[in-house]
Amino acid sequence: MRSVTRRSVLAAGTLAATLVPGKPRAAEPAGLPALHVVTPPKPLPAVKFRDAAGKIQTLAAYRGRGVVLNLWATWCAPCVRELPSLDALAGQLKGGHIAVLTVSADIGGVKTVREFYAKHHIDNLPVLVDPEGDVLHALGARGLPTTYLVTPAGTEAGWIEGGQDWSAPASLARIKALIGG
Q1: Distance, CA of 129 to CA of 53 (rounded, Å)
Q2: CA neighbours closer than 13 Å in the CB half-sphere of residue 72
Q3: How big is the CA angle at 10 (ends 9 and 12), to the nearest 5 degrees?
Q4: Percentage of the chain surpassing pLDDT 70?
Q5: Could you tell me which residues come within 8 angstroms of residue 120 by beta carbon, excluding any fewer than 6 positions away?
Q6: Residue ranges per domain, the chain?
Q7: For 29-179, which CATH class?
Q8: Can you tell me the distance from the alpha carbon of 149 to that of 178, in angstroms, rounded to the nearest whole number?
Q9: Looking at residue 29, what is its pLDDT?
Q10: How far is CA 132 from the centre of its chain?
Q11: Could you give the residue ranges of the DSSP H alpha helices within the chain?
Q12: Chain Cα centroid distance, residue 144
């Protein structure tokens, strides 16, 4: 007959505890896992930037549509890696209820952005510039790239720092869930 020791009881209990399912853990959100969701969405300050023709544009002009607002620069390595996926996202959303706006902080302005777009085959994004950095300052961006998800009402639904894969199906689904589309 085998004797039961304290050690065997503890070992059996430890093994049993690992086999019993615990509480399910909250699933990591699919797509854009580093996204900071703003609940409830908060108002954004009025921001101005320029288009390729030099005309002043504002986020208010996009009321009624969701906006993916990306702040970037041609000298920013993560921005350069990220921009093709934003271009693909813009292509996927073309004609829909979400606009993809990429505002460059390059001091070279429109010329620099056009050259970059041509070199990297960026076809779906408008040329938008903010060479003075007013948008970065107004939104409180800490660095580049930084992207804001803006609701059709013009409020901030979320933000994310660093380069992302915006064209992945899970990313697109998360964007649509937060800002419509």
Answers
A1: 10
A2: 30
A3: 65
A4: 83
A5: 80, 83, 84
A6: 29-179
A7: alpha beta
A8: 8
A9: 59
A10: 23
A11: 6-19, 77-93, 109-120, 134-139, 169-179
A12: 12
Q: What is the DSSP letter of 61?
A: G
113, 105 Cβ separation under 8 angstroms: no
44 alpha carbon, distance to own chain's centre: 16
Burial status of residue 135 (CB atoms within 10 A of its CB: 0-12, 13-18, 19 or more)? buried
Tokens, residue 40? 């409830």
pLDDT per residue over 126-178, tens digit each?
A: 999 999 999 999 999 999 999 999 999 999 999 999 999 999 999 999 999 99
Q: Which residue has the tokens 């961006």?
A: 141
Average pLDDT, the chain: 87
Packing angle, helices 77-93 and 169-179, rounded to 10: 70
pLDDT lower than 70: segments of the chain: 1-29
* Cβ neighbour number for residue 175 with a 10 Å cutoff: 26
Q: Are 104 and 72 in contact (CB under 8 A)?
A: yes
